Amino acid sequence: MHRMDDRPARWSQATVYPDMWADPDDDPRNSEGPGPDGELATLGGYLADYRMTLRMKCEGLDAEQLARRSVPPSTMSLLGLIRHLAEVERDWRNWISDADPLPKLYGERDADFDGVVAEQAVVDAAYRDLEREQAATDAALADHPDLGERVGKDGIAVRELLVHRIEEYARHCGHADLLRECVDGRVGQ
Questions:
Q1: pLDDT (tens digit, 9 = 90+) per residue, 156-167?
Q2: Is pLDDT of 76 > 90?
Q3: Where is this region: Disordered (predicted)?
Q4: Which of 13, 106, 147, 183 has the fewest CB atoms within 10 Å around its CB?
C-alpha cells in the first residue's frame, strides 16, 4: 500500500462513489427522508453527524496510528483530537455555568495533544473521556432548550454555543481527514 517515498497510497472503502468514506448504504450518517423539524433538532443533528464522522475517521487504527503526528511539524494526531474535543466539551460547560471553572482534563495549554502516547490504555481513556464530557455537556444544555436564552457569566446565547460546537467539530473533522490520509491513505468525505 505504500509508495516508494513511503507515503501511503490513497484508498477508500467506497465503491459507488470512490471519493466518499463509505458507500451510501453503509454510511451510518445517511438518513432517508426529510430532515428534523426545528432549529434545535437541526443543530443537534449536525453535531451528532460531526461527532460520528470523527469516530469514523479513527476506526480501524491501532494506538500507534492514532497517536502518530502525521503532519509535521504539527503536534496534532487523531488521538490528540479526541482528547482535545473532550477538553473542549468540558470547557463549554464552563460557559454554561456560573460556578467556578471545571479543571482541565489533561493539563495546561496543548497538553491534550502533547501528552499523547501510543498506548491502548491511553486511547481507551480518551474515548471514555470524550463520551463522558459530551454527555455531560449535552445534559447541561438540555436544561436550556430556548436557543435565545443567555447563560453563564458571559451571557452567551445557547444558539451561539451550539453553533460553536458544530464549528469546532467540523474544523477538526477536516484535520482528521488529512491526518488519516497521511496515516494509511484512506480518503473520503
A1: 999 999 999 999
A2: yes
A3: 1-42
A4: 13
